Amino acid sequence: MLKILPEDYRPYLEYLPDLQLCINIIMTFTPLFSYGSTCYSIQKRQTSVGFSIDICCTMFMAAILRIYYYICSPYEPTLLRQSIVMIFIQSILLKISLKYRPNNYDPELLNPLPVFENELNLRIPRRLSSATLEHESYWRGDWINSMELLSLDTLKYIWGYFITYFNQGLRFFDVYYKRPFNFWQWKYERNYWLFITWFIGIFGILTIFLKDNLIYTNIIGMLGLFIESLLPLPQILLLNRLQSVKNFKIILLLSWLCGDCTKISYLLYGAQNISIIFLIAGLFQMSLDFYIAYQYLKFKYLDDYQTNKEVGFVESSDRRNQSISEIVQQMITPSSSEIEMDDFTEKHTDSIGNKIRSSRSRSRSGSMIV
Questions:
Q1: I want to staple 62 with a disulfide (CB 3.0 to 4.6 A). Which of 195, 228, 233, 286 is the partner?
Q2: Which residues span the membrane (predicted)?
């Protein structure tokens, strides 16, 4: 860059702001732009329907753990300042979201989580299911067939447990189901702030006594990154449940994607003391944000296009099934609105003609009297 500029202009570069400093400032205040627009949108629409307040919980815990991780193992100061700004904007967002939540919200009306054992019995072979009273024998007359059947059922058994645990964990992020102790589904606002206070206090005390412990440092670091990487998951499940993006603003999605790109670029080229764990968590979060982008395009444009296409196909098929005489009759027969308009025009014309004739007769009679 310096070689391209003439030598006479190079001294003026000293008056330009430091590029690294500008990038650090942008990274610090990125949460204000990302979630500030969401606060404005909710305030303007007077409703938080379509926005998952689980995002606030996720970012609160991730930012708090990141601050405590900095105390134990200092990293890039810009990310620390970003965490502080994140807590500030999430406090405002949570306050506004709870204020404009539907008045009839009641967590007791949510569906309970499915029973683990019942779901597991649907996914494993009936020979291993606890719901089966009579279990079949695995002996098939020879050892080869018997061991093959036993091995296959063992794999299905392990896979059934994995899928069941995965679904149960995924439902924890679904606002449709009632969580244990109504976690982050409370009816009253004070419970949310009370949880945040306890979370800060408990991990603060642990950090004071265990800040020199390497195991504790790694635990809170990994936990914070894991929680933050799951940020888009509640919104994904909410949009999938609603099958609509009516109240979900595109500006929030764009801010997430831009934030992901900025974060990944910063971790790759701008930061100096960053672990590979930060990069992996950032890439995973970006993949979930791209899935939200797919949901937005699908529910916003693709489904509407398919619906309009089906409606147009039905209308065209109905028209193809009509005979030529029926089509011609529809073309030459006026509609009800046209008939009403013609009647109104005729009546209006007749009334005007009557008024003109009556005025002429009065003028004639007046002239005869004179």
A1: 228
A2: 21-43, 49-71, 83-100, 192-210, 216-238, 274-294
